[in-house]
Design brief:
- The protein is α+β, with helices and mostly antiparallel strands.
- The protein is built from two helices and eight strands.
- It has a five-stranded antiparallel sheet with strand order 1-2-3-6-7, sandwiched between helices. A three-stranded antiparallel sheet has the order 4-5-8.
């Protein structure tokens, strides 16, 4: 399994490269997607992962399907599948990870808030970031199909955090109240 790189790795400070749409279904890109999901799924506390976080300077991120389950617990209100356009019949069922290739945020709400944030590539450091409450993103899925998705709350925060990764930005670059919180044993 691919290892998640940490904040000192230069790949996290690069502008990631776009993926040619014609290449999305190639073995190479599909392998990257599989490695990303494997790395993300191996982390109990991870909710999303950008390709640079496992060493690939590509404009791809994956959002964990677990954030859409009824069992997902977070200090903030958990998302529902309905909030992100998934049919009500799917709520509570195992949901696959969502893939965003060449994502572009097309709209951010003017209304912002300070939200708690961490990162799998900035292990055990947490802080607060000032993020838009709502975001709309356009991207391609793992089959090369273009889609647009709106989000609020945690998913809007994820869109912004992961897009920052693709632009060489880490949350600690603009967070406040940064502190270390080691895992409880």
């Amino acid at each position: 399994m691919k290892k998640i790189v940490q904040k000192e790795d230069k790949v996290l400070r690069q502008n990631a490269d776009e993926v040619r749409v014609a290449n999305i279904k190639t073995k190479k890109i599909q392998k990257v997607l599989k490695e990303m999901s494997g790395a993300l799924n191996s982390q109990d506390d991870g909710v999303a992962l950008a390709a640079p976080q496992i060493g690939y300077p590509l404009r791809i991120f994956v959002v964990s399907g677990k954030i859409f389950t009824k069992d997902f617990v977070r200090a903030e209100k958990a998302l529902t599948l309905e909030e992100v356009g998934v049919p009500a019949a799917s709520i509570g069922k195992k949901t696959k990870n969502l893939v965003f290739i060449n994502p572009k945020i097309s709209k951010l709400s003017r209304e912002k808030e300070w939200v708690p944030e961490g990162c799998l590539s900035v292990r055990w450091l947490y802080g607060r970031t000032f993020r838009s409450k709502k975001a709309t993103i356009a991207a391609y899925d793992e089959n090369g199909k273009k889609f647009t998705r709106g989000a609020s709350g945690l998913l809007a925060q994820i869109f912004q955090h992961e897009t920052d990764h693709l632009n060489g930005i880490l949350f600690i670059d603009h967070a406040k109240d940064i502190k270390e919180e080691l895992p409880r044993k």
